[in-house]
Amino acid sequence: MRETCIQECPLCRSSAEYYLVDYDKCKFFKCPRCGLFQVSLRAEGALLQGPQQWRDAYSQKAKEAPEDHALAIRVSSPSQGAGVADAAVAGKYVRMAELPQG
Length: 102
Hints:
The structure is a single chain. By secondary structure, this protein is of the alpha+beta class. The chain has one domain (5-98). Helix content is 21%, strand content 36%. It has a six-stranded mixed β-sheet, covered by helices on one side. The protein starts with a strand and ends in a 7-residue tail after the last strand.
């Protein structure tokens, strides 16, 4: 059984529920403002260090997810010697059945 936790949504700062998935490398959020989305721990860190516009854009994109889909936010591997800020954050809609669950 998954343990549900509560924290500030990394996109809109509302109180949101999440649980860890994908071998504890991602969080699956249920936010009252943004809806359902999944974010890798690396992408969450990059978003929190990035400009507010990034979080606003992903919040809006999460709200617009097609039925039976959720926004999956990931970060590409930065080049050697690059920091978190240099990592490329990307989000795409993924069918709920295809998201990592465990």
